[in-house]
Structures are given as structure tokens and as C-alpha cells.
Amino acid sequence: MASVEVVAEHERILREIESTDTNCIGPTLRSVYDGQEHGLFMEKLEGRIRNHDREIEKMCNHHFQGFVDSITELLKVRGEAQKLKGQVTDTNRRLQEDGKEVLSSMNELRKCRLQQRNIATTVDKLTHCLPVLEMYGRLQEQMRAKRYYPALRTLEQLEHTCLPRAGRYRFCTIMAENIPVLRTQIRDIAMSDLKDFLESIRKHSDKIGETAMKQAQLQRTLDSALSLQQRAGLSRRSRKDAGTDLKGHGGSPISEQDSGILDVEDEEEERVCVLQVPGAQDLVDFSPVYRCLHIYTVLGARETFESYYRKQRRKQARLVLQPHSNMHETLDGYRMFFNHIVGFFVVEDHILHTTRGLVNRAYVEELWELALSKTIAALRTHSSYCTDPDLVLDLKNLIVLFADTLQGYGFPVNQLFDMLLEIREQYGEILLKKWSSTFRQILDQDNYSPIPVSNEEEYRCIVGQFPFQDPEQEKLPFPKKLPFSAFVPKVYVQLKEFIYACLKFSEDLHLSSTEIDDMIRKSTNLLLTRTLSNCLQYAIKKKNVGLAELVQIIINTTHLEQSCQFLEGFISNITNVPPDTINATKLYGTSTFKDARHTAEEEIYTNLNQKIDQFLQLADYDWMAAQAHGQASDYLSDLIAFLCSTFSVFTNLPGKAIEHATMSGKVAQTACMSACKHLSTSLLQLLLESDVRQVSMGALQQFNLDVKECERFARAGPVPGFQGDTLLLAFIDLRQLLDLFTQWDWSTYLADYGRPTCKYLRVNPHTALALLEKMKDTSRKNNVFAQFRKNERDKQKLIDTVVKQLRNLISAHQS
């Protein structure tokens, strides 16, 4: 069994050796040597080798005859091959000899072809290089001619088209290296031109603005002419043609023309309209900014250029918007300020409409908002220094022209017109100050006497100035006197002049007739209620104003009050607004002149009372006199004479003036009653004043004579119009007191006190007690020995009894 397995294993190993590469039989042989049957395997191996040798021998014997035949044929072929070799060698020799001439010709042909190829290549290269050289030469010419934008285009074509075709030649390399330098040079030159352009428009902005404002002024003039023609009834065709001729430039009058937006016909009409007024493009060469914009666009640095341009223009805007410190002194200062601003924005508008994106609408509007705010602030500041109404009016007209000019370019200007309304208030205050001085001068220079009129011409002249209507006055023959003084027509004329001044400012403010009417009426009311009223008050209350002047002021204010209705009609005529319009402001002239009259009346009463007080200061009573002088005191006689002459002035006044010159009655009656009351009160105070410690019966009788003189004056009726003895009532208190003491009717007084029918109803027990105390002291001190006389003792006892009863009466009344 073991031998069968060994034999099988040896067979396997032998098959493996036969089938395996000799490089890999090491492990197989090792397994043989590791086994125990080494000798047996070797025998098996030798037997296998012998079998293979026998098979090889069999194969060689089988193929040997074929091999011999092959060798024999090969030997025959060798001879033939040698013969062929000789023939080939001979043929080759003869061929070489024959091909020498052909080879020489071929070499010459090859050289010729090579030369032709080189020539073609050279021509081709020259064809590509010549345009480069020509273009470079053109570039140099353009640079010398300062045609930088075409030079930049040439440079771009040279770099991207010509040089790549020309090849890598040294001169091409030099050109290529020089291209960035040329670009930088062109960019720097363009920027230098731009800086010169910015400096140019900064210098010429005032001229550009002046031109634009002249153009706007001409446009307004032509518009007004067109309006007049339309109202005159021109034909529809002529109106249409005129409208075409006068049609505005739209949002950008100058820039649209520059941009080619208007057609040829419109340009011709534009030329006729502006009468060859130069535009922005005529005053400033804009080609540098266009050229620089194109150059930077080609260089791919458009954003850098736009940023630089806008930054520089913003700086210029801030410089333009800084007014001179003395701008408010003259109109030329304001005009130069406005010209610079208008010129700046005309240029920006031109740039906006002639370039694409260098500036946009948002940027221009931002600059305009900045300019508008700073302009309004500057105008508010500097206009506040103005005190001349003519300068303020000229400034208003200049601001309106400034606003209309910029509005023609599409800029919103509503804030400017709102600011003009503010300046309107300031203008009104300046007018009020000016008219205050005018009114005071008129009042100071007036003689406060009726105006004498010697002929019809003088009369018509005054009536033409002041609406005086009095049929009775017109019937009077010349010479005659008008009831009012010269300041009445002068004040009325000044009122109309003030209204005209207000109207001038309201023009061109784009206000309706109703708004203008309301503004004029409000300003006129301020003039009446504040300025004129204060001037009248000043004229009435200043020192050394006589009663005659005060009376004349009352007459004058009456006529001025009557003229207020004509003043209302005058305002309605110039504003074309009916006076009965709903919510229309009414003039307050009536109340103003009534207040002035009331003040004048009060001043009359005050002056009369002061005069009375001055006379009373001359009173020199002997309070210890034994008996009266038998006639009124001298000071009182003089006082009565003064009052009579004074009230005669009132009596001689025209009737209508007196009727209108009242508050609660006629001035003369009120003044007379006030004077009598003041005189009565002052006389009573004189009798009861503390300095008078003793009063004798004789002094009291003298005082009674003076009071009777006053009553005689009152009874005589110094001023007509009093009913009965109304004026005597002013002295009733004094009369009852004196009757009580002179008649010594104490029993009646004490018995009837407190009854409505009491004879001495107006006598105050305190007043009676004070006067009785002074008489009691007189009785005691002046009659030392009176106590030894029975009559004097009885009188003294009577006085003591009356004093005691008066005190009891006062105590009972108080309780």
C-alpha cells in the first residue's frame, strides 16, 4: 500500500517537473530530498529521461531526409545570390554615375524652393509688421496732435489686433512694453485737462448763471407779451405760433439743445427766442470732460473717473454755497451768489443730459437739496440784516428770478417760495418801521389847523388825494377851510403807498388773488392798529400839546375813519377780489381811529384837570378870616375865564365833527362835566386837607362865594346841549355842605339823615364832622374870653352837641 502511494507521488512530482518552469522546481525537488524514497525517485527519473531520449531520436530519424534536402537547396541559392549581388552592384554603380547630374539639379531646386519659402515668409511677416509700424506712427501723430481718445483707440487696436499678428519681434516687444506707459500718459493728460475744465467752470459759473438768469428773465418778458397778445384777441394761429416760439426749454433748456434732442426747427425758434443769448456750451468748452470720460471708459476706470468728478464738484458746490460775509449790504452781493449757484447747476444739468451716467438724476437732486438748504439758511441769515425795504423788494425779485431759472431746468423750488413768504413777514416789519417814521414826521410837521383852500384847483388837488365828500362844503365860496388838517390827506396817501409796496412784494409769488388780498389786508391792519395807532398815541401824549391840537386830532381821526371804506375799495380794485368775499379780512381802521379819539378825549380831560390843578395851586385862602371879601377869589375868576375860552373852542367846531367825536356823549359836554366835577372835588379836598387845621366862618363864607362863582359858570351853559341844571349837579355835594354850615341847619340834617327826601342828602357825616372839628378848634382858640359871654358859650355847647350827635350817627351807621 505504501509503495503504491510512493509511486503515485513520484509520478506527480515528475509531471510537475515536466510542466513547471525550471525556475520554480526547487520546492518540488526539496520534497523529494526530504522524503525517504530518494533512490527510488532517482530510478524513476532516469527511466523517464530514457523514455524522452527515445522519443527524440525517433523524431530526428523521421525528419532527417527533409533536412538534407533543405541544405542542398540552400547551397544552390547562395550561388544565385552572389550572381544577383554582382548585378545589383553594377546597376548601382551605373545609377550613381547617371544620378550625379540629377542630384545636382535637385540640390539647386531645393535651394530655390527654400529661398522662395523664405521670401514668402518674409513677405507675410512684413505684411503683418507694416500695419504695426504704420499704426504706431499714426499713434505718435495723434499723441503730438493731442487727439488722445483716437490715440487710445489706436493703441487698443495695436495691442489686441496688430501686435499679436506681427509675432515676437524685438520692436514688437518694445512697443508692447511701451503701451502701458502710453496709456498712463494719456490718462494723466486727460486728468490734467479735466482739472483745467473744473477750474474753468468754477471761474465761469457766475457768467453762466448770469446768462441763464437773463434768459429766464427774457422768457418771462416774452410770456407776459404773449399773455397780453392773447388778451388782445390775436388769432388762434398766431397764438399757436407765439406759444411755439415762447415754449420753454423743458427740464433742461440748454442741455437739450446741446444733446441734439431738439430738431433743427426748434433750434431756430430757440435762437429767435433767446436773441442769441449764449448758453453754457458757448461759455465753457465741455470737450475735456467728454474726452476724459471716453478715455477712462476705454481704460476700464470709468467708476474712478465718475467718483473723482463728483467728489470735485461737491467740493466746488460747498465753495459756491458759502456767501460773502457782507453779501447783505448790496444787491450785487446777492446777485453774484445766485449767479454762481445757477451756473453750477446749469453745468451739472448740461453734463447730465450730454453724458451717460457721469452724473445721474439722484446725484443732481442730492446736490440740489444741499444747495437749497444752504441757500435758504444763508438768505434767512443775511436778509435779517436788511433794513431797507427797497433792497428787500429787489432781493425778492432776484429770488423769484433765481427760482424761475432753476425751475426751468426741472429743479423743485417750492421751498424758495415758502421762504419768500417768511421774508414777506420781515418785509412787512421793515415797511412798518419806515412808515412809522413817515407818520411821525407827518404828525410832527402838521400845524393841526384846518386846511385853507383859496381856489378850485387846490380843492380838487386835496380831494384827489383824500376821498372827502361834503356837499355843503362844496357849496361854500372860496376861500374856505376844510375841517381836517394837512396830515389827513398825507396819511391817507401814505396808506395807499404802503398798500402798493405790499402789492409789489406779492407779485410773482404764484399766489392767488385771494391770498394776495388777504396778505395786503393783514399788513394794512398791522399798519393801522400798531404803527399808525402808536404814532397817533405818541402825537396825542407828547408834551406841550394844546387842547386845540387835541380837538383837531379828534376831527382828523373822524375823517380818516370815514375813509376806511374807500381804502377797502382801493384794495379790492388792485387785487380784483370783491370786498364781500367770504372769509375776506376786514380792515380795523375804524377801531384804530376810535381808540385814538378816545385817547385824545381822555387827554383833553386830563389836560383840563391839570390846568384846573395849576389854578388851584394859586389859591391862597385866609382860613382864619373874620369875614368874606365880598367877591370871588382872583385865582377862581381867572380859572373861570380860562374855562370859558377853552370851551368856546369846542363850541366853534363843525357840527359833524362834534357828532363823530364822542364816546358816550359830545366831547365838549363830557369835557365840561369832567372839568366841573374835578373842580368841585378839588375844592372840597382843598377845604378838608390836613394842612388846614382851623376854618373860620368868614373863610367859609369866602369859600362859599367862590363856589357860587363856579355855579354861575355852570348855570351860564359854557357848552350847549345840557338839559336844565345838569351841569350844576357837579357842585351839588359842595353846595349842600356849605349850605349846612352857613345856615347852621343841623337839626334838619340830623332829623332827616338817611331819608330819600333829605335836604342835605349829598352831605357825608364824616365830611361834616371833619369840617366841624376845624371850626370847633377855631372857636376855642380864637375866643379865649368867649366862655364869659353867654352867646359864645351857647354856640360852643351847640357845636359840641352837634359833634357828639354826628359821632353817634356815624357809629350807628357803621354798626
Question: Can you walk through the features of this model?
Answer:
The protein has 815 residues and is mainly α. The protein has helices at 2-19, 26-34, 38-144, 148-166, 170-231, 236-245, 253-258, 264-274, 280-283, 287-298, 302-320, 331-354, 361-383, 389-408, 414-445, 456-465, 471-475, 487-506, 513-541, 547-562, 564-575, 589-616, 634-651, 655-660, 667-688, 697-715, 732-742, 746-752, 765-782, 790-814; strands at residues 452-453, 480-481. It has a two-stranded antiparallel ribbon with strand order 1-2.
Structure characteristics:
815 residues, mainly alpha, elongated, single chain, 2 strands
Please give the radius of gyration in angstroms.
Answer: 66 Å
Distance between the termini: 178 Å
Structural class: mainly alpha
Approximately how much helix is present in the residues?
A: over 70%
Output mean pLDDT.
79
Count of helix runs: 30
The total count of strands amounts to 2
Low-confidence parts: 234-276, 654-665, 783-788
Biggest sheet strand line-up: 1-2
Strand percentage lies at under 5%
Shape, principal axes of CA atoms: elongated
Largest sheet: 2 strands, antiparallel
Chain-wise SSE layout:
Blueprint (H helix, E strand, L loop, with lengths): L1 H18 L6 H9 L3 H107 L3 H19 L3 H62 L4 H10 L7 H6 L5 H11 L5 H4 L3 H12 L3 H19 L10 H24 L6 H23 L5 H20 L5 H32 L6 E2 L2 H10 L5 H5 L4 E2 L5 H20 L6 H29 L5 H16 L1 H12 L13 H28 L17 H18 L3 H6 L6 H22 L8 H19 L16 H11 L3 H7 L12 H18 L7 H25 L1
Quick description:
Helices cover 76% and strands 0% of the residues. With 815 residues, it is mainly alpha-helical. About 7% of the residues have low confidence.
